[in-house]
Amino acid sequence: MRLFSFDPTMAPExxxxxxxxxxxxxxAWWSALxxxxxxxxxxxxxxxxxxxVEALEAELGGIKPAVEVVGVATPGTAIPATGRAxxxxxxxxxxx
Length: 96
Hints:
Blueprint: E1 2-3, E2 18-19, H1 27-36, H2 38-60, H3 75-82
Antiparallel strand pairs: 1-2
Helix pairs in contact: 1-2
């Protein structure tokens, strides 16, 4: 988990934001779901967000009541947003 409580541009005063990165190797599944069934894709992202909040609550306690917004990005999100499969750092362009 990466916290941004030091950066006032990341959240309103009195709030903070965090990023939790979880490795996923299911690029093809997420991409196919995004393209083939957008409603289910959104539902699966919602479920992942809930699972992450629940895991943080179990590990750290007191987090769940403080969570106001959850955004989930999947491997299927990265390629349309960036044109590459990288989620951090650089990734060479996809080959045709």
